[in-house]
Amino acid sequence: MLLTVPNQLTMFRVLVIPLLVLVFYTDLQWRHLICAALFGLAGITDALDGYYARKYNQSTPFGAFLDPVADKLIVAVALALLIEQNGNIWFTLPAVVIISREIVISALREWMAELGARGAVAVSFIGKLKTTLQIIAILVLLAFPDGSPYYLHEIGLITVYGAAVLTLWSMIVYLKAAWPSLSGKTAKTAKED
Fold this sequence. Notes:
single chain; mainly alpha; Four Helix Bundle (Hemerythrin (Met), subunit A); 2 domains; about 0% strand
């Protein structure tokens, strides 16, 4: 069944993306907090769709395809908006690292799936930690632009750098695990604890 609750939550996350962009470019006084709330709501739906899919056995091929796409789209769009908002190398550099890693790992997973070795690039603990820091950084930076009180913007920048470091680390873990397949040998698993 295509329109399961988890799939509806995932599609909702995709629909939040244009709304996030529209609100970002308005002159609303609370636009930064509204953007952060929209991004946070999308994060909650991500957790809920996975929970419902597992608890009620509602996993579908469509959901398995769309869920990671929705995640990567909203993160990439939010980072693109923040690149424009910050307009400097200090933010653009970690944002480009994060976006580039997502593209590389998505392509790697697709390629490994074609080889029947998708499990070799399964999500690791480092990947989950990276995602958590990335979400926190984006939420803080969307809510608190440069010049916000209490150094909240600077805390967001530090967090995005932490996410970028973990992004590179997790990419190395995945590439290392996939290297045997990339070099024509059998793949190992990339899971780390």
